[in-house]
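Q&A log
Question type: sequence-to-structure
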Amino acid sequence: MKSITKIIIIIFMSLSLGASATLQEVVSPKMAKDLLNMEIPKQCFKRKNIWTDTQCFWRAQVWSYAMEQNYNVKAEKAFMFYSKKYRNKEHCGGGSKFHVTPVVKVMGDNGVVDYRTLDGITHSVLNLHTWSRIWIKDRNDCHIPGSYQCPIIKWEDYKGYQDTEIQNSEWCYIVVVPRYMYYERDLETKRGQAGWEVSNLKQAFGKIKSKCLKKGSYAQYKELKDLVNGL
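Response status: OK
Response body:
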């Protein structure tokens, strides 16, 4: 009976983790700052060993889901890829493969809607270009102009990390994707995905909880806690 109940819970959670028709898609600048101040990842950044303690895609998954469940906000994600040219030892010779953060659409004072990042490491609400240049460094004599901007590629036009043209011509590039995309390879392999996957949420929250929230300070994430502890 217990195993049957568990299966029913898993099915119910899978069906209930899809997109909501009432989510707020555009927020004010103030709300974007408020969301950043309420985010769970900031608890991690008080630790000196943040880079080894948590992964950006865990944090992005937890916070994107929390914005939907707790604040009724439809977030998205920005994946910034370091190109092979940037990573090549004959050029800049640095950077991992990618960095990812939640983003929200913000209505500016001029009436223009633009993406803003909610990245706990920078702890600032930034446009995509300012945010990306924090991670793209003019290092090892690779001579990246200060005015350089990572091109932004539409998800439907993204050909994957093996797209040799952009890998050899650019230092970096950004792909904005739905909030439930979890890892970089999902951008290519899960184009048909239409909602959250329980397994990804469970893994991400389990990692964040064990690495950053050892005192249990995650009351606003009750549904995720129940998901991790109950399945």
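Response note: The two ends are 15 Å apart (CA to CA).
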